[in-house]
Amino acid sequence: MISTQIPSYNEMIRQSIQEHWFLDSMSDYGxxxxxxxxxxxxxxxxxxxxxEAGIEKGDKIALCGRNLSRWGAAFFSILTYGAVAVxxxxxxxxxxxHDIVNHSEAKLLFVGDKVWPTLLAxxxxxxxxxxxxxxxxxxxxxxxxxxxxxxxxxxxFGEKFPSRFLPExxxxxxxxxxxxxxxxxxxGTTSNSKGVMIPYRALWSNCDFARNVLGxxxxxxxxxxxxxPMAHMYGMAFEFTYEFMVGVHVNFLTxxxxxxxxxxxxxxVKPIIIVVVPLIIxxxxxxxxxxxxxxxxxxxxxxxxxxxxxxxKRICDGLTQALGGNFYEVIIGGAALNQExxxxxxxxxxxxxxxxxxxxxAPIITYDDWKDQVVGSCGKNVVHQELRIDSxxxxxxxxxxxxxxxxxxxxxxxxxxxxxxxxxxxxxYHTGDLGVMNARGNVFIKGRSKNMxxxxxGQNIYPEEIEDKLSGMTLVGECLVVQRDDKLVxxxxxxxxxxxxxxxxxxxxxxxxxxxxxxINPQLPSYAQLFSIKVMENEFEKTPKKSIKRFLYQK
Length: 555
Description:
alpha/beta; Rossmann fold; 3 domains; five-stranded mixed sheet; four-stranded mixed sheet; 27 strands; 34% helix; 22% strand; globular
């Protein structure tokens, strides 16, 4: 472990609330706003609710809903009470939500209005209560003390603060560095669920990293637009928790982020930084930049000295204004950035940078300021971490990326075998990603040794889970799920015996596969649904162990 003095994370939350008491803290953009003092009030009321209900420090409390101010306030309420937050992606299939709630042994569940109608309370029998993220009302109550406390919450709050509710009266749980803070699931099925145990030191370390690289840029009163799911560590760390610690106003985009809505909202919010996954920036570039440079005359002029520089600057300025015009840089992470788009951004001098991380590191592993960004690189090793390439020649021969330090998880919840496979005896976390690192420390990812795919917002997609469902469907002999651009495609080699027996034509087979796609998609979260199923003419190539050579079909 890297030696450093680690302060209390919850104390940092308390200090931020006290220092920024009257500043805007979180907004459901265009709907309503919490000031920091309002968040403090929610925290105190939730603490009363938890205490009256018999929730103990270390108990798990889950949250599942789209990004909302009340989600954020509930999250801080859980940590500052000393309980463990279990954020769940609202896009997960209901059965996955049930599994995570049960596997985590959560006592309470905060749930959003879009998610709640899809869930079945009876499938989560150990919950003592389900709380609405619309107004914190009780949707389900199996604990009389919880019900009493909710009905009398305002009176109980008044008894706790009989005169005035003042910032100096705040008192929160004092956390320890290796204490479990967040349980973040990378998969939703019981058999393959991986609950990543994030300690307070990892939350603090990521926050301190952000302070080191952006503290001179981001100030209290600045604004950001939150587009990534807070239940994912990338969005949580860099669009929400760090900003809260420094007095920033977080605006949650509650509508679907279509390019039109996104551009309009960015123009209104004018965020100080923009944190995105590649899909978003690629869509914007293809809509706002590509058409401008397709004209042969423009392309010719871009090669002319001085004139070319002016054209590139005009294009860069136009893209910058389209994204609000006030940001220091656009931080891209969660998946690989299209090489053509990145080269274009670099050529026009756009303020972008590409980072790299993992849920298991909460999440940051590498980063570099946009002014030092090297094309194709995902940055350099960050503060409080060590990084090495497991290769005899790390500059030329790709090897697995290993990292060790304060960011690394405690392990996987209830899964010692997976923990031992991921973290070796010397404390190195094995990312499963392959890369090289040049003499200046720039890391270049060359591929993934794991099969995990990344969704459009950085969600983890495990193709084996989809393949498991697909393989049991009509006429499927062998199958593989791959990513084509940002879409998932099922590759299927039909059961030839059935094809012959039923005398099926090519169009018959394609029709059956389309029906299979329609049947399987409702069983999957939205980001893991199949865009199409392609019928393969030949059997998949296999290893001697009869495993499909997956790498042959990735491109």
